[in-house]
Amino acid sequence: MNHLEMTEASHKETREDGEQQDAVWGWPSPRREGLYVNEEQNQMKRNIQEALRSVGVFGHYRGYHYFTMAVMMAAEDPERLHALGKEIYLPIAEQCGTSVANVEKDIRTIRDVMMRNGGEELLAKAAGCAHWKDKSPYPKEIISIFAEYFHHQ
After folding, report:
1. CB under 8 Å to 59, separation ≥6 — which residues?
2. 31-36: average pLDDT
3. What is the DSSP string of 108-149?
4. pTM (2 decimals)?
5. What is residue 27's three-state secondary structure?
């Protein structure tokens, strides 16, 4: 067993129903669930997370993982953005064992932290315009911008 396998194995625990879950975060492992099954998706996830870290958004925010999952889902099928609550927030809430309201609130927190830490420049680069100088974008707009930008990278 190599170092990576040992690290991953040490973060797993078995729930009462026999399913394995991440011991640290408590939700099912994305690899086990097949969310990020190919290298292209893994690379997109790393790019999204790198962009978030560049504006002071780190993994200790619950919304960090929710936001990453939301962008991945929107990149996979942009039509999901038309019913954000039902098509993106609800599946994330179910997978992570929380409510839709919590997913939405935690993604808004990510937006707020991003905008406080210079996220306007990142959004301007990703969107191709500097529209958010005086106001914060809606979570739907940020998810859409990230999904399109990282899908085409």
Report:
1. 49, 65
2. 46
3. HHHHHHHHHTTHHHHHHHHHSS---SSSPPPHHHHHHHHHHH
4. 0.73
5. coil
